[in-house]
Amino acid sequence: MIQKVLVSGNPRLWNRNVGRYPYCPGCQHPLMERLLAEAIDELGIEDRAIGVTGVGCHARLCMPLDIDVVQVIHGRAADAATGIKHALDGEPIVFTIQGDGDCASIGSEGFLGACHRCERISIFMLNNTNYGTTGGQMGPTTLMGQKTTSTPEGRTPSHGYPLHVPELVATMRGVCYAARGALTTPAQYQQTRKFIKKALQKQMDDLGMTFVEVLVACPANWRMKPVDSLKWIQEEVIKEFPLGEIKDVDKT
Question: pTM to 2 decimals?
């Protein structure tokens, strides 16, 4: 008797509908959907997991996942996630999906407050170095010299410098895990998958706040072809934002 083993295909919890949740060509947000579906399934927490999104391209990420999802106003995902974590019984596993602007700009107050208070939630921030939804303006992680619709000559020191979020929150005692991954190669995909799973596991172990930044392509606003955008991440973005685990402790 031949035993069949599934070696490829969509994750069990990923109910993707391309027509209902459209993305720009070359956008890497769907890869993040897949990573979350895989991690939640492998950890066996689909009945406990609750996703929270703010406003932005990232807002549709949790929709294809077969779990409970809440969408809140711009920049308030960390606040909502905190409330859900404290209000519900049954030890919910609560995570946010946010863009770099939603998390580290308009949402910085709630985000840093949650880090400071050692909230037992996980925050996943997608960094595409601009405000993708509103037309490609400069964001907190825009690279020096990068041209955006609000910095047509390129970002200069007068505009400030790119914010290194995992390195920032790693200095906070309430954060037990901080990492940065990317999705431009199969190896990077697997590495980021490990980061996401570990962040959720540490929340399950009640160790503290966990944070993972993921570098993602935005070909439409970068005015690049999808393949060129991957090359730019490899050659320029990772140079500014090195990949890896910045903090990994078992006690806060």
Answer: 0.93
